[in-house]
Amino acid sequence: MLKLKNLLKFAVLILLFSCKSVPDDIIMFHDLNKGKVLSGSEINRTNYNITIRPESSLNIIVSSASTMDYQLKEQFNLLPLTSLDPQTMRVSNEMTFQRYRVDENGEINYPVLGKFKVQGLTCFEVESILIDSLKQKLSDPVVKVYIVMDSIKVFGEVNQPGALTVVDKYHYSILDAIADAGDINEFGDRKRVKLLREEEGKISSAILDLTSTDVFISPYFYLKEKDIIVVDPNRARKKNSQYGVADNYKLSVISTIIGTISTLTSLIIVAINSGK
After folding, report:
1. Among residues 223, 225, 220, which one has the least CA distance to residue 208?
2. Would you call 43 exposed, middle or buried from its count of C-beta atoms within 10 A (0-12, 13-18, 19+)?
3. What tens digit of pLDDT does each residue of 30-71 get?
């Protein structure tokens, strides 16, 4: 009888330790858990400073450190827009700055200064050009230029799929986009996050592994306008799509019960035979 009790305890321990651990493909940067250490590793700075191209949208905000320039600076800012609430037919208090659209020649039409070319320049370079030009008009001009990336799209197994509008950010990474999309859900495959990029009428693609810190050295770590991100379903989602969530759960429970009964039966038989 004592042997039987010991065998049953041993069976319970086997069942406990046979439970599957959390798979690596759903853990972000799991290589850190395996002992990898990041010490002074450099992030790939490709696309760190995005250059302006035709069809880009720019937010340009001009201010001045001098209170005397209050009225003068207003002529260099497009009037803010107010949105109309269709339900109340009232104008919202939330205002958004109008954008400068870069034309097919890579130029924008800027108030007072007229047209000038911005294609191929970074936001910092445009800021410098405008500050130099505005010094003739304002005593101490301050200029901020942002590319409005309103065409980045995230599809697949994320909590909030859809188009992302990125404003007032100079550097925007794949991790920023995933966070803004509500993170990858429990059915997303973090090892195979696809990125598609359109540049000058040509498409390129990459597969990023978000379970590895190697993503930081990828040339696709920082995003560009019109990038498309697709998070594939993992194995659990694929199984659920075959049987349905309820059916898959039932199969899992039944399989566990059958396995437990089979193990216990075998141990009992062994115990009985050994006691004879």
Report:
1. 220
2. middle
3. 778 777 777 777 888 887 888 898 888 898 988 887 766 666
